[in-house]
C-alpha cells in the first residue's frame, strides 16, 4: 500500500532503499535550527558540515537520469 499526498500516489517501498548520503548532517542542522529558534549564526558548524557533504556528492557518483526532455516525453506517452 502507498500513501496519497494530494493527488500524488507515493509507494514507500520503492524509495525505502535509496541511498541518503547527507541525511545525518541535514538532521543535525535542522535540529540545531529548531532548538535555536532560527538563529543561523548559532548553527554555523552544522551548516558548514552539511554544505561540505553536499558538495562532496559530485555528479560522477550519481547515476545520470538523461535529459529532461526525454523524461517529459516518456511521461506524456503514458497519459495518451
Automatic annotation (TrEMBL):
Start and end residues of each IMS import disulfide relay-system CHCH-CHCH-like Cx9C domain: 19-57
* Designated name of the protein: IMS import disulfide relay-system CHCH-CHCH-like Cx9C domain-containing protein
Q: Which domain of life is it from?
A: Eukaryota
Name the SUPFAM superfamilies on file.
Cysteine alpha-hairpin motif (SSF47072)
What InterPro entries has UniProt attached to this entry? CX9C, Cys_alpha_HP_mot_SF, Ribosomal_mS37_fun
